[in-house]
Amino acid sequence: MTTTVPKIYAFHEFSEVAEAVADYVVYAQNNALSKELVDRKMSVSSLNVNSEVEFKDVQRSVSIKSVSGVSRESSKKPKREVRFKIALSGGSLIHVLHKGLLSRTDVMWGKWDIYFADERLVPFDSEHSNFGLAKREILDQIDTEAYGKPNVFHINESLIKDPQECADDYEKILIKGFAGRDSVKLPMFDLFLLGCAPDGHIASLFPNFQENLREKLAWVVPVTGAPSGPTERISLTIPVICHSHRLAFVVEGSTKAPVLKTIMERPEKGLPSSIVNEGAAGRVSWFVDDEALTDVSVIKKDYKFRSNK
Length: 309
Ligand SMILES: O=C(O)[C@H](O)[C@@H](O)[C@H](O)[C@H](O)COP(=O)(O)O
Known about the structure:
Elements: E1 7-11, H1 14-39, H2 55-68, E2 84-88, H3 92-101, E3 112-116, E4 118-120, H4 130-137, H5 144-147, E5 151-153, H6 163-177, E6 191-194, H7 210-214, E7 220-223, E8 233-236, H8 238-242, E9 247-251, H9 257-265, H10 272-279, E10 284-289
Parallel strand pairs: 1-10, 2-3, 2-6, 3-5, 6-9, 9-10
Antiparallel strand pairs: 4-8, 7-8
Bound molecules: 6-phosphogluconic acid.
The site of 6-phosphogluconic acid has 17 residues, from helix 3 and strand 4.
């Protein structure tokens, strides 16, 4: 059995999953951006940074910067701008985020750095491209006039014929975004969002692909011969995924019930999803619908909404 029981939030409907996931994303966003408030020594005496930061506080800090053009600490050396660093998987997660996030008015898209947990090595306009799907379903639909434009870090499309080169190139992109490999051993995402396939793969880390699953040094690995979907891919590695500040699995549908049963009741089977569930114990939340939990014995928690829409 798992050593630390993950938080498992169960919902009747897809729309409820989407609403709760969106709330959790905004909660993670506000916590990440609250570091900026603290850094600037704003009037944070009433602010409990361990709990939810009110959107208006974060928004105020941003507007102060944009109105005055300089921060209140402009006399001191400029600090690296605090941004919300999030990793997205592909598949149904993107539809969940489309449904839950786009209608909200408290998503500070302009402060987001979006990376991909994995990518299938296909052209961006292919229906199988994770970036392509995210672009169509989310990125192209953001009201950037009102909420700003996120920085999006995707693979180099010109390298899709060479998985190793593409992985190395994406690793360099991560190294640049996370202040360089010499200064950080591993990147730390504020939030890492994962789906889970019926075979237990997460990102593009598949069961029995031992070399990829045991990778300790690389941040990004090439994947060849994937057993489902496009065969050539790249994926962020287990150490990177597990190092995230928060992780959330988003899983719906009865086809996922058997794998959820294995993850929750038979972690010793070592599915990639179990490795992360265990490896990041204490920081993992699961957002699932009732169908995915059919016949799975777990303790479900009620999700407490943290932000106002
Ligand atoms: O490229 C991939 O394979 C995805 O990033 C993958 O890790 C996804 O999250 C799962 O396959 C679940 O996908 P579904 O939620 O669509 O079942």
